[in-house]
Design brief:
This protein is mainly beta. The chain has one domain: Lipocalin (Beta Barrel), CATH 2.40.128. The chain has 2 helices and 9 strands; from the N terminus they run H-E-E-E-E-H-E-E-E-E-E. Strands 1, 2, 3, 4, 5, 6, 7, 8 and 9 form a 9-stranded antiparallel beta sheet that branches. Strand 7 and strand 8 form a beta hairpin. The chain is elongated and about 55 Å long. The two termini are 31 Å apart. The relative contact order is 0.20.
Length: 189
């Protein structure tokens, strides 16, 4: 039994000693949104500014941020986009949409990532269901979220003739570089 204890301690230290850092690649990340209206759905995109996420499944800790450029919102209609930026997102005043993770559960292939979703200057508690597939030193990441923008204080762009939903669906497909970081304290020499 005595010889088993040091091995178990060594294994436990190895599991808890490393966390993983993901650097999201803005050039290879798609952020797509869908807003339903009575006749059809409006589709558009946003661009990722930057993103670094740190997580450790052993401890459940998560940190970092994923920053989306609110001013990059593009639905394919210049007039509609102008209204979206000026009247709904107020992207001149609130240029970033940010997810800040604080806790992770599950496993790499399917994880729940809890955190704050900041949009229009306010934080909202949110849990993202994330699917991830490692490929060499990179990771393919997908998640879907629903933003109840009207409930969160933004204007509904509906008019007398055009009726749109009060929630926006967002799909994120990101590519990230994986970095494993040793978090054990440095030993005295």
């Amino acid at each position: 039994m005595k010889s088993t204890i040091p091995i178990l301690l060594l294994l436990a230290t190895a599991v808890f000693a490393e966390d993983t850092v993901l650097e999201l690649d803005p050039a290879r990340t798609q952020v797509e949104f869908t807003l339903s209206d009575v006749l059809h759905a409006i589709h558009g995109t946003f661009k990722l500014k930057r993103g670094t996420i740190r997580y450790d499944f052993a401890t459940g800790s998560a940190a970092g941020e994923m920053v989306i450029d609110a001013q990059s919102g593009d639905s394919g209609s210049e007039a509609r986009d102008k209204r979206m930026h000026k009247n709904i997102l107020e992207s001149g005043r609130y240029p970033d949409i940010v997810f800040i993770p604080d806790h992770v559960e599950g496993e790499l292939s399917k994880a729940s990532v809890h955190g704050a979703f900041r949009i229009h200057g306010k934080d909202h508690e949110m849990t993202l269901l994330v699917e991830a597939v490692p490929k060499d030193s990179e990771m393919d990441i997908k998640t879907h979220l629903v933003v109840p923008y009207v409930q969160w204080g933004m204007k509904n762009p509906s008019t007398l003739l055009l009726r749109v939903g009060n929630k926006v669906n967002i799909d994120i497909h990101a590519q990230a570089r994986i970095h494993e970081t040793d978090t054990t304290p440095a030993r005295s020499r």
